[in-house]
Specification:
- By secondary structure, the protein is mainly alpha-helical.
- 65% of the residues lie in helices and 3% in strands.
- It has a two-stranded antiparallel sheet.
- The chain is globular.
Length: 193
């Protein structure tokens, strides 16, 4: 079904291993250490801008993030190469965390709890996919209709926002990942890369 490239395969493995460790070693409070806390919290540590994107809050959370990673990232890794893709992935994930934390710090948005998951980097991948392959037609699962990649980013964002009944989804991190991706892709285009 999926043709995973080496780096994407390793990212999926790392995320699954961390998720298993979170659940099997819950008495060690691993999730609390590696999730991104509010900058106001005494539990905040700068390394969390990196580690939060490998932790997940539940089976559905990790499944949908890894499904999106396995679906779209191999094409970008094949197009850019491992090094460029890794830089992009980490930059969008860290950037999403910084935007989320900055908005929480300066605007008081969010509940001040923890944030975790690869969604910021995933939305970066979706934005990149839409920008790099804008007219590539993809088949949606629900409903099964073809859609151009350039529109898919907005539909995915809307679906995530519309289906969030709990208010626990960090939509600003999703936007942050997509925004950072837009900046990076625009910069690479202006440099002819």
């Amino acid at each position: 079904m999926f043709r995973l490239t080496p780096l994407v395969r390793n990212l999926v493995i790392i995320n699954v291993v961390v998720f298993l460790a979170q659940n099997l070693l819950s008495n060690l409070h691993l999730t609390e250490y590696i999730s991104l806390w509010s900058i106001h919290s005494p539990n905040f540590r700068p390394y969390q801008f990196f580690t939060y994107m490998f932790a997940h809050g539940g089976l559905g959370h990790i499944f949908f993030n890894m499904f999106a990673l396995a679906s779209f990232a191999p094409i970008l890794e094949g197009y850019w190469g491992e090094k460029k893709f890794l830089i992009f992935y980490l930059a969008t994930g860290i950037g999403a965390g910084i935007i989320y934390a900055g908005a929480n710090y300066f605007l008081g948005t969010g509940a001040g709890g923890i944030m975790l998951g690869a969604s910021g980097a995933i939305y970066g991948i979706l934005m990149a996919f839409g920008m790099v392959f804008p007219n590539l037609e993809l088949m949606l699962l629900f409903p099964p209709i073809p859609i151009k990649a350039k529109y898919m980013v907005f539909i995915m964002g809307f679906i995530t926002y519309a289906l969030d009944r709990s208010g626990s989804v960090a939509h600003l991190a999703h936007f942050g990942g997509a925004f950072v991706a837009f900046i990076i892709i625009s910069a690479w285009r202006s440099q002819g890369r």
